[in-house]
TrEMBL record:
Chief location category: secreted
Entry-linked PANTHER family: ADAMTS A DISINTEGRIN AND METALLOPROTEASE WITH THROMBOSPONDIN MOTIFS PROTEASE, PAPILIN
Keywords (A to Z) from UniProt: Repeat, Secreted, Signal
A GO term, aspect molecular function: metalloendopeptidase activity
Pfam family, one: TSP1_ADAMTS
Protein name: ATS13 metalloproteinase
Coiled coil stretches, renumbered: none
Localization of this protein: Secreted
Single GO cellular component term: extracellular region
InterPro entries according to UniProt: ADAMTS_ADAMTS-like (IPR050439), Sperma_CUB_dom_sf (IPR035914), TSP1_rpt (IPR000884), TSP1_rpt_sf (IPR036383)
GO biological process, one term: proteolysis
Length: 397
């Protein structure tokens, strides 16, 4: 530019109008949790640049729809929880065979404090009920016939609830159990037990015969309304433990497997659903189960949670409850027969005109059998299918 004449340098006064108000975000503070998902608080203020200086304004002068969140999710590291147990109780009888129980707790190994059992539901849990012997009773020691009397199996008077005697009903059609019918003959029991695999039982009480099934892997499910829990006792077992035959009991808050001393076992689901899986190798082997339901000793659900058992249904959110606390995460539990699968289709999603469509607004769907979770954001009208017979759906914000 040297040959070109250079203009004189000069300053001009400008008087621009103030910049429009905007949101200012300070860096987030520490995470509220030492492990797992927590919240970090950040300061959000309304400011305006006037004559090169930042002026603090009232929040109402900044666009409400664009206000950033004051709390953001944070994860320092993943938590590692584990099951912990109390000491075994004394044997329930003073002589003969009885049971021992112990209490289980979900433990945070860092703080050594008990946490909600839902944090441990992914981890297998040891047994909480076991058989015990307090020695022979005096009346059992007289005569050589006493030992033979101990080994006699008692035929239950309750009719076998198998495919031939139980019809699958939807949750809303639950009725009191039918009156007792004559016990099935051995031939009838064998015939009906072949169709029991893959069934869902919704009655309050019943007996399930899983002996003599054709399939080596047999699965049945028991379901009751929210607020109840299920207790299962093993009446008979012909499993060959040395051959690897086994039965597995699993629920949302419990996991137990076993083979030996099953007739002494009492299994509590701790929630309103229970799945029983049996694996046999030798023809004719299996277990005979008796189950019943009662009001749960501890509340394991929220008032806005729902339970679906039927072949189809609609899920609507939010749930309108007068005392529902702000920010409650409402869930719907879906359980179908083990041989069936679940499909969920979002028909309509409305987040509102002034909704803050952030990562706090999402729908979470969990496949319980694989514990895989899918998250759907915004107004996405999704379609989801399960790999097993159990699913959970959660609505956040």
């Amino acid at each position: 530019c040297h040959p070109v004449p250079k203009p004189e340098s000069r300053m001009e006064v400008c008087d621009l109008s103030p910049c429009p108000p905007r949101w200012k975000v300070t860096p987030a503070g520490p995470c509220s949790s030492s492990c797992g998902l927590g919240l970090a608080v950040q300061l959000v203020t309304c400011v305006q640049i006037h004559q090169g200086k930042e002026v603090l304004l009232e929040d109402g002068l900044c666009p409400v729809a664009e206000k950033p969140l004051t709390s953001v999710p944070c994860v320092i590291r993943m938590c590692s929880y584990e099951w912990n147990f109390s000491e075994w109780s004394e044997c329930s009888t003073s002589c003969g065979n009885g049971i021992q129980t112990r209490q289980d707790f979900c433990l945070n190994p860092l703080t050594r404090k008990h946490v909600n059992p839902i944090f441990c539901r992914h981890f297998p849990k040891a047994i909480v009920v076991r058989g015990c012997s307090a020695g022979p009773c005096p009346e059992q020691m007289v005569g050589p016939g006493a030992r033979g009397a101990e080994l006699q199996m008692v035929t239950p008077a309750v009719p076998l609830m198998t495919a031939a005697t139980t019809k699958e009903v939807r949750y809303k059609d639950l009725d009191p159990p039918p009156s007792a019918e004559p016990a099935l003959t051995q031939e009838q029991a064998k015939e009906s037990s072949e169709g029991v695999c893959g069934k869902l039982f919704l009655n309050a009480t019943g007996v399930i015969n899983m002996t003599g099934v054709e399939s080596s892997d047999c699965t049945v499910a028991i379901g009751r309304p929210l607020g109840e829990e299920i207790t299962v006792s093993v009446l008979e077992s012909s499993l060959n433990c040395s051959a690897g035959e086994v039965v597995l009991f699993s629920g949302r808050m419990m996991w137990r497997t076993g083979c030996r001393k099953l007739p002494l076992s009492l299994i509590n689901s701790r929630t309103n659903t229970l799945i029983v899986k049996q694996r046999v190798l030798l023809p004719g082997n299996g277990v005979l189960l008796q189950y019943s339901s009662r009001t749960a000793t501890k509340k394991y659900y929220q008032d806005c949670d729902k339970q679906l058992f039927g072949p189809q249904g609609e899920i609507e959110h939010p749930v309108q409850l007068p005392d529902l606390r702000q920010g409650a995460v409402c869930r719907t539990f879906i359980n179908v027969a083990p041989r069936q699968r679940i499909a969920i289709r979002a028909l309509y999603i409305d987040l509102g005109k002034e909704s803050n469509q952030t990562h706090f607004n999402y729908i979470l769907v969990r496949d319980v059998s694989t514990m895989k979770t899918m998250v759907f954001h915004g107004k996405q009208q999704f379609f989801w299918q399960s790999t097993g017979s159990q699913a959970e759906i959660e609505f956040h914000e």
